[in-house]
Amino acid sequence: MSNSMLRLCLIFLTMSMMVFMSSAITPRVGFYRTSCPSAEAIVRKAVNKAVAKNPGIAAGLIRMHFHDCFVRGCDASVLLDSTPGKLSEKEHPANNPSLRGFEVIDEAKAELESLCPRTVSCADILAFAARDGALAVGGINYQVPSGRRDGRVSLFDDPSQDLPSPSSNAKELGASFARKGFSLDEMVTLSGAHSIGVSHCSSFSNRLYSFNETHPQDPSLDPKFARDLKAKCPPSSSNNVVQLDDLTPNRLDNKYYSNLMNHRGLFESDQTLLSSHSTAGMVRNNARLGPAWAKKFASAMVKMGSIDILTGRQGEIRKKCRVVN
């Protein structure tokens, strides 16, 4: 082989290795330690400011992170606005009008762009914000590996394929989470996020008025709880909202599982966790062991934040989280 051919081969091999290494970067805690040291503090400041005004924003940020990661992976696709002739994920009924907290992400991103332009991804901002929401309303803290990149695609139909329905049963929920690499116990653990936040009546009104041909009202509902819900959600009130957890509505805690044991789960997908033999014991354990549940919740949130992420030269770092560059 001639020297020139050898040099060309070496150059090609070197470039191939560089591309491989750039796409094989593993997210790590402290990813922005040198490139933007204040990144996490800036996100936390924006979250705390919003939660101080409305604790429900914490629930919105946790849910938004979940809806982002389960659809196309944790790539901030849920943050993208629709474009002419092309609706995005955020317009899907699973997200609109129920998702909230977009303005918190925008505020943090604007400050980060002024301080560290084109450095901190929207996907990482959302992961940080979900953690900070859990800390603000539940005292649940954990370290977030970062280094995600932002996706360039957001499709209206995708949530239908990946997000579980409020009417899902335990088997369907388990299968949905298993496709993303989660165990049954992790699914039950993450369901505890329904300890905070609100729901539109339309998401569960079938349990009150049209459950099935035999029972107009879901027989698994506590009768008093059902009466209270009907008072807040008359048949024509799909836009009304109620608290997911009426015991500690603004606190992320294990009271969600106590509600299930008292047949006061708001969604079918909640109450099914107690009625199913495969998950009932997990519900009872989480109701008894609050600190253990909180520790499991933190671990499961970290795991969720690693679903199908983009790294290295994949995707981009958006300048604004609502639009691609």
Report on this model:
The protein is mainly alpha-helical. It is 49% helix and 2% strand. The chain contains 14 helices and 2 strands. It has helices spanning 3-23, 39-53, 56-70, 102-115, 122-138, 158-162, 170-178, 184-191, 206-209, 223-232, 255-261, 268-275, 277-288, 290-304, and strands spanning 198-200, 241-243. A two-stranded antiparallel sheet has the order 1-2. Helix 2 crosses helix 5. The chain is globular. The relative contact order is 0.17.
Salient structural properties:
325 residues; mainly alpha; two-stranded antiparallel ribbon; 14 helices
How is this structure best summarized?
With 325 residues, this protein is an all-alpha fold. The chain has 14 helices and two strands; from the N terminus they run ααααααααβααβαααα. It has helices at 3-23, 39-53, 56-70, 102-115, 122-138, 158-162, 170-178, 184-191, 206-209, 223-232, 255-261, 268-275, 277-288, 290-304; strands spanning 198-200, 241-243.
- Indicate the radius of gyration in whole angstroms: 22 Å
The SS-based structural class is mainly alpha
In which order are the strands of the major sheet placed? 1-2
- On the 0-100 scale, what is the average pLDDT? 92
**Terminal Cα span:** 45 Å
